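Quick one, tokens below:
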């Protein structure tokens, strides 16, 4: 398989080389929901399927960093 894949968002060079730094940036952006899957895949030069598989591996080894409190459903938004 070719190491360089077509980047749909970058019209200047046309290709993006997949590097560990690009993949780490894309996974972190997906984890924080600052980038969607097509943009992340284009950022690191992967297909959508490859990005999904990489992100699922990322999720296996990175625990959630937020806490869900028990009483969030009982809070009313319209009461003061």
């Amino acid at each position: 398989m070719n190491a360089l894949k077509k980047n749909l968002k970058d019209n200047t060079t046309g290709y993006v080389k997949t590097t560990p730094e690009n993949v780490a940036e894309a996974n972190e952006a997906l984890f924080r929901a600052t980038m969607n899957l097509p943009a992340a895949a284009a950022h690191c030069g992967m297909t959508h399927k490859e990005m999904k598989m990489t992100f699922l591996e990322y999720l296996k080894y990175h625990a959630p960093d937020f806490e869900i409190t028990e009483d969030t459903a009982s809070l009313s938004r319209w009461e003061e």
